[in-house]
Structure formats: C-alpha cells, structure tokens
C-alpha cells in the first residue's frame, strides 16, 4: 500500500515546480514509510510514498513503461493498492508478448493499462486507487476500486487537476486554501461521521466515487461509472447459496493472503473475524506456513464496567480465547487505558483530515500501531454486516420504516445541538432527507419483487453504499497512518454482487441474522462461535473516559476564542453534559456513538478547526 498524489496543469511548466509536488508527496509519508519518488513533465507531476508489500526490492514508483506501439512516449503510473488476480493478469500479458522487469503487481497494473487502456479496470480484482499519465496523448486516467476500499480525492479548476490519497496532499498545494462551506459543515454536523459519496468535506474538493474512473485532458474532464451493484434473479436454493458463498469467500481469503512481508488477522471472536481467521489458518496448514499471528483489542478494566445490551450482548475476551485455542494461532492481546484513548483523539483527526468516529477511530489507530510491530499486512472482517444484513437495524421495524438512514435516526437531536444561525443555514432535516432520497433513487429495482424483498434490497443498498464506506475509510486511514496495510475479504466485488441478490429469506436461513453466512461455515467454526450473537467493535465502558472528554469539552467552551462557539447551541451542550447518566445513553450515530462519543467528536471538531486553520466560507 502507498500514498499517491499528482498535479495536472495546462497553463504552467511543472518541471519548475518540483518543490510543490515534493511537499504534497511528503504529507503522505506515514502511508508509505519505505520509499519516496516523484516524476515531472511539463504538464504532469506525480508523487508517491511506498509501503513495500510485494517485491520490496523492486516496484519503485512512479513507474514508467513505453506506451503501446511507441518508442518515444511513455505511460507513467502512481498506484495505491493490491491486485489479487495479478498472477492471472501477468500470464495473460506474457502470452501477448509483454516482458516483466519485476515481480510486483504495480507493473502488472501499468502494463494492463498499456495494453487495454481504460478497459483494464474491468479485469482487476483488488483494492486500488491509481493514476496513469499518457505522455503522447497528454491524458490523465484515474480509477478507484469497486467498493471504495482505497481512497482518492481530487480538486478540479480551470486548466488544472490535483489529486491525492488523502485531502492533506491537496491542501499542501500552495494555491489551495483550507476552506469549508455550508455543505461541508452539513456533512460534518448532520451526516458525519458518515459522508455522502463523492463529497470531500473541503470546499471544491471531491472524492472519486467507488467503481468510478476519470479522464482529464485538454478537451476537459469526464467521470464515468465502470461498476455498480445490479439487481438480478437469484436461482440457487439455500444449500447451493451456502456453497457458493463458501467458495467465493475461501477463494478471496487465499488470494488476499499473498504477501512478501509478515501477515496476520484481526480476531474479535465474532463470526466474521473468526471465519476469516479459520480459513487463513487452514490455508497456512495446507501450505506449511506455520502459525498465523492474530490480534485482538480491548481496554484496561473494561470487564469491570461492561453491561450487556442489545447492541453489545457480551464481551469479546472469552470468545477470542475460544478461537485462539481452537485454531492454535500466535495470538497478541492488546489493551489500552483511558488516557491513551483521549490523547489519541487528535492524532485520529490528523490521520483522517477531519473529525471521525471519535474514540472508535482513536482506539483503531492505537490498535494498528501495535499490530504494525509484528506484521505489515492484516486481514479484517469489515463489510460482512452490510452485505449479509447483520446489523440490528436490518431486523427492527422502526428502522426499516423510518424513511431515513437507519444509523441516523437522531437528526432532530443533532439539529438541536447547532446554533440557531447555523441550523437555519444548514437546514439539517432537509439536508438528510435530500441525501436519503438521492440514495434511494439509486437502488437498482427488480421487477416482480414483493414489498418485503424490495424493502430489504433497499436497506442492503443503503448499507453497502452509505454506511460501509464510513468503516472502510476509517480502517484505511487509521491503519495507513502507521504504515499497516489492511485487507478486507468481504469486500471482494464478486461476493458482494452475489450476496446482494440473495433473497432475504435465504440470507436469514435458520431464522438468524447472517444465517446464510453461518450455514456456509458450518464445518469451519465450532457451533458456539458460529451462532454467537453479533457484538460490534469494542468501545471503552470506563466512566473515566466520559468524565475526561466531558471536562475537556466544557473547558474548551469556556474559552472565548473557541471556534465552536458560533457553531453550537452551547447551552444545550452544557445541559447534556450536566446529565451525566443520560449522556452515556444518547445514541446519535450508529450503534456505538452516544454521549461520550458526542463530546469526543466535538473535541475533534474544535481541534480540526484550529489545527488546519479552517476558514468557514458561509
């Protein structure tokens, strides 16, 4: 994995601007701690930071190869990601006559573009964000993977396009101000920590949407869709469906275990991570690769403060032990204390370039930092709940009939936290309603479906295209901030497309959430783990955390120079802070974010406004 950035400019000679592209590139150092490189021509400048995973001795970027049929012009690539079907593509290209100089997938991707041009994206299985410059045509081509695992942002102006793996690379350009307009604030205060697809938060900055590509040349800018979810009849019965799910998942895990550096899995003892770990252990045994490293996270003394509830029915620790003993993995149990969590809130903002999921982000950043001490690549279970329907809101009538995003049922509460002036400017309820209507309008219909199947198809689509990206972005940004590559097998586009069309009554086979996934794994996991009730990513239950973030926020609000003051209904915030017990049960986003996370989120907003010297263009 890596960090990429670039600058296309028709009205300036970029060979004189090495300083600017180097500055943009260096902002991505944490994504790629192993090497750096830049490439400049008159109208194109590329920068790259490398995290070496495949063929560490070679594969330096930007990578240059001759354009098809030319001895005088080149194609130049910067790339962040992994191609899991690189061996097959390599054989196909060699059969055509291409000669390879390295063993890395970077060269496979570049030669795939040289041979097939923009159509190469249809052949790729992997997670990626890349840009190619064709020197003969003076044309930029950029693409992002189908589910949006790898990020890519851009800013387009007259005669210019800037891009980067993270906003910080674009913000480092000398002509780009750190500005946020009303729409950006609506994303932060009304939609956040989720984000509308394509929205970059920063003014005039966009994110390339998943499954999209861009071409930019002197004739203009063109964005196109090369992949999207499609609705189709599902022809398999329960047994056949379970068999196909198992086949796809096992193939995906084996592909994603390819690495020239140490690799491990994240293990919570839940269905998703246990399944991936068990499949990985089986592959390790068959290929004589020894014991698989596994990693779990928790908080010091969390067991003393844990109280079971619908969203978090039991603690992970006993289940982690169950799986590590069952599979004989080389397990690493990692714990953090409250002060570390509070201190890391700001680093999480720097990793994301915006406020995020508060302590849930901070703990993941700390977790990844510890994992990186032992491995460079990790396998994680993101996306299973979105594609198989595991979240509680898939199974609650109030959420299914809410006519809004099921993780954002507290729009009224959130609106009440804003100052009257900002509330009037943003119109929170209208903003969410518009974004929801936009999302629903995209859902691919299937003629003849009954009301229940239509409703569940819509819920699945919303989760895959609106909620899942939040977790994927979180996982990428927190892991890459410490130079750790995280792979997500449940995001294989073949699996996602297949499961999207499984009827709800088959998805819930056995009258259980994610029933078809459980059935597909019946000979992989012990029954007690296989049918364990879902428990989400752990958060701290220590009251000291609530006390710490609440005190810090009230302290900030006492500062007359606090940039939050004109944005918030300070009296309402103080009222919530005074009700200590109620604030710990104040769900305002998803399953995990209540009172403590609200205070922490506002602390992140305050830090972000100050550290990035954000100018509000209202």
TrEMBL record:
E.C. numbers: 6.3.5.4
Residue ranges annotated for the Glutamine amidotransferase type-2 domain, each copy included: 2-219
Catalytic activity: L-aspartate + L-glutamine + ATP + H2O = L-asparagine + L-glutamate + AMP + diphosphate + H(+)
Broad EC category: ligase
Keyword tags: Amino-acid biosynthesis, Asparagine biosynthesis, ATP-binding, Glutamine amidotransferase, Ligase, Nucleotide-binding
Molecular function terms, GO-annotated: asparagine synthase (glutamine-hydrolyzing) activity
Domain of life: Bacteria
Stated name of the protein: asparagine synthase (glutamine-hydrolyzing)
Organism: Cohnella suwonensis
